[in-house]
Each structure stands twice: as structure tokens, then as C-alpha cells.
Amino acid sequence: MLTATFAVLFYLAGALFVAGLVARIALYARTPAPLRIPTTPAPTTRSGAAVRVASEVTLFWSLLRSNKWIWLLGWLMHIALLLVVLRHLRYVIEPVPQWLLLLQPLGLYAAYALVIALAGLWLRRLIVDRLRHISSLSDHLMLALLLAIALSGLGMQHLQPTDVVAVKAFFLGLLRFDWQPLPTDPLLLSHLLLVLALLVIFPFSKLLHAPGVFFSPSRNQPDDSRQRRHIAPWAAAVEGTVAGRTASASTAAGSTAPGRTAAASTAAAASTAAGGTAAGSTAAERRQS
Known about the structure:
single chain; mainly alpha; Fumarate Reductase Cytochrome B subunit; disordered C terminus
């Protein structure tokens, strides 16, 4: 019963994670950028903008220039989290490649670095007045969730070791739709429940900022407003519709103008003829008198 429950929970959480991630990325891609708004100084070429985005993703370059301590904690947390996730790939890959075996000790040390970085970032939100006032409950809960996952993982390493062979068999069984018994260690079950919560929350929380960097107009746009005109697709469509209506109105006005000109000429000729007739009548009257 326990194995079936966790198997269903992981299927549901995985499906929600993938669907939420795809939906959020699609939303980012559809969001228009009507203005050219790169944060200056900015590169003036598309290749330079791509390098800028890459530097933000890998080095957190703008954060490094603004605050060295926050950069150190943030960069350490993200790199440590990446190494920890890579270390856990051994539970879903069989056979385990050599590079992943070599990464195992580094991933364990990264878990300690992850705890230190998360604790430092959380402490910063608690002791810095400005951050304490603008931090919401969700900010604290996200840090607490990540810290609880890291601490429970380290607890299984040092306090309550679990049967990692059985755990790997369980996850490989999930991928192959051949469920295998899951160990019932309390710390392991707590760790897995926390991971499930993270999978469900991740696509709908502030944690999903990594894909947003690639769609940020202040980062991915080159500063070339003087060289080329920037226009959003929807604005181009509106502009094309307005231009079409203007051209139609001009054509209609042009086709009406010759008729109006002919009528005006006829009226002028009639007016001239009437004037000539009136002048002749006046002259005749004078001769008679």
C-alpha cells in the first residue's frame, strides 16, 4: 500500500511539474515586448546579448556587480543544488556512467554547501530590515522547504541510513511501470514527501525564475534602437491593418474626386453663361431707354 501510494504521488507530481513548466514557458514566450528596454550598458549585437544572457545564467553577473555577499550565497546555493541533483541521477540510470560515479563525493560536499548557503540567505531575510519588511510568507516557506530537503537528505547519510539499492529499484520501477517495494524508513519517507511538495510548488512559485531569464527583455535585447526599428508582432499586425484602411480611404477619395471636379466645372460654365445672359439683357434695356 505504501509503495503504491508513493508511486501514484510521484506520477501525479511529475505530470504537474512538467505541465506547469511547459505552460509557464509558453506564457513567457507569448508575452509581447513592445519596447526596446535593455538594461544599459548593453551589447549592441544579438550575439552580444546572447553572451550576456549566458553570463547571467552561469555567473549571475549583474548580482556580482551589485552585491558580492549576496552573489556568493546565491551562486553557491545554485551550484550546490545542481551538483546534488546530478548526484541523484544514479537512482534513475542503470548502468551508472563513470562521470556520475566520480561526481558522487563532490555531490555530497555540495549538500553541506547547500545547507550553508540556504541558511545564509534565510538569515539575511531575517536580520536585514529592508528585506525583512518586503519578504512575504512564501519567501520564508520556499527557503524552509529547500533547507528541510537538504537536511533530511544529510540525515539519511549520517543519522538513519537507508537501503539505497531498494530506493533505486523503486525509482527504476516507476520509470518501467514495474513497482518495487519502497523502504519504510521515516526519514526517507519525509525526504520524499518534501521532494513531492517541491515538484508541485515549483512551476507556480518564485523558484521558477531560471527560464524567465531567457525571456527577459532587459537582458536578451541588444541596444540597437538607432540601427533598427523594434516592433512587436501584434503591433506590426495593428500597423498593417491601419495602413490598409488608410490606403482604402485614399483610393476611395481618389475615385470620387474626378466626378466632383466635372460637376464643379459644369456649374462654373453654367454660372458664366448666366452671367453673360444677364449682361446682354442689361445692355438691351439701356438702348431701349
